[in-house]
Amino acid sequence: VVMSDEQAALFQKYVKSTRVRAARNISGYALPAGASKEDRLAVEGVLKEAFGGLPAELQGTYYPLGGLTSEQEDALQAGGFLFQKPGPMQLLGAAGAGRDWPDGRGIFHNDAKTVLCWCNEEDQCRIIAMENGGDVKGVFERFCSLSHAIKGAAEANGKKLMESPNLGFLGTCPSNLGTGLRASVMIVLPELNKDPHKLEEICAGFDLQPRGSSGEHSAAVGAKWDISNKQRIGFSEVELVQKMIDGITNIIAMEEELAAKAAGGEAAASEAEGSEETAAPVGEESKPQGEGAMEGQAMDDKEGEVAQPAAVEPEAEAAAEAPAETPAEAPAETPAETP
Ligand code: ADP
Ligand code: MG
């Protein structure tokens, strides 16, 4: 992964937090939507053993969901660390992934909450590295260590991950086939936020996807967006993280340009004040982002309303198309760090 000093400085200035996650499942047990109680508990058992075998720098504690108080659960969710219960009107819930909730579900994390694993949500395991700030390389490195360690720990216990030589990692949602990797930054974009649909188009031009500030299909509160790579398959982990870095660099440049224009417009307007009766500002003042800001957007994951299957556009399909031309420079050839 290549991140120039200029990019690092830009990310440090604009990015609130960085997260890299991927889906991992264990061969021999049904995926959560179709799992029996026994499967789910067996998976939890395998994962607990794997967590116990992690190297010192990745060590943490496993918290079964049923053992958390609702205050603890709320706090973890508010911090962006924990999944939500799949609702019956969401594809995941309707597909059966919410049965016997919260049995067999849980979260593993270290004290700093920079290394996390989810147990039996959409996938048997989601591995996550995250931290405040914009050090994408550091977060990705930790993600890679976690990825290798979980695989190694599962194999040490006589298990293997669901992985196909052609498709890569297998998971519940076809959109996650391949690397299963989503590398995201939380970033405040007051100018681009004024037109969420335009923002989505711009992101798509860089093979990126915007989400709201508390997960898929949530609103962008305070103009804070979660922007990540859109594809999971057809590219290496390194290439996907690089696309995110380069795309975000371009998006920040656009945001700065718009902000400069808006400031210029306001300056011109206030100069004209006095001679004109009312000087209308060129750039609208940041208006509050209402609920449902993302309504009507093309949804690429499975969390769309069951009643609107037409809105679901699988990522895998998008990934199969010829990669869109991005204004960003093509990432330099870099060896994949994980298969
Ligand atoms: P995924 O399915 O990829 O885990 P979701 O959209 O379901 O993603 O979001 C999961 C949680 O992770 C949400 O609470 C979201 O706000 C949080 N999150 C995603 N990206 C970041 C980030 N870069 N920094 C902090 N929190 C994040
Ligand atoms: Mg999710």
TrEMBL record:
ATP binds at residues 17-21, 126, 182-186, 211-216. Keywords: ATP-binding, Kinase, Nucleotide-binding, Transferase. InterPro entries: ATP-guanido_PTrfase, ATP-guanido_PTrfase_AS, ATP-guanido_PTrfase_cat, Gln_synth/guanido_kin_cat_dom. Residues 14-258 form the Phosphagen kinase C-terminal domain. GO terms for cellular component: extracellular space. One of its GO terms (biological process) is phosphocreatine biosynthetic process. Pfam families: ATP-gua_Ptrans. Coiled coil: none annotated. The keyword Transmembrane does not apply. One of its GO terms (molecular function) is ATP binding. Residues 264-339 are annotated as: Disordered. Residues 264-280, 306-339 have a biased composition (Low complexity). It comes from the Eukaryota. Belongs to the ATP:guanido phosphotransferase family. PANTHER family: ARGININE KINASE 1-RELATED, ARGININE OR CREATINE KINASE. This is Phosphagen kinase C-terminal domain-containing protein. It comes from Hemiselmis andersenii. The lineage of its organism: Eukaryota, Cryptophyceae, Cryptomonadales, Hemiselmidaceae, Hemiselmis.
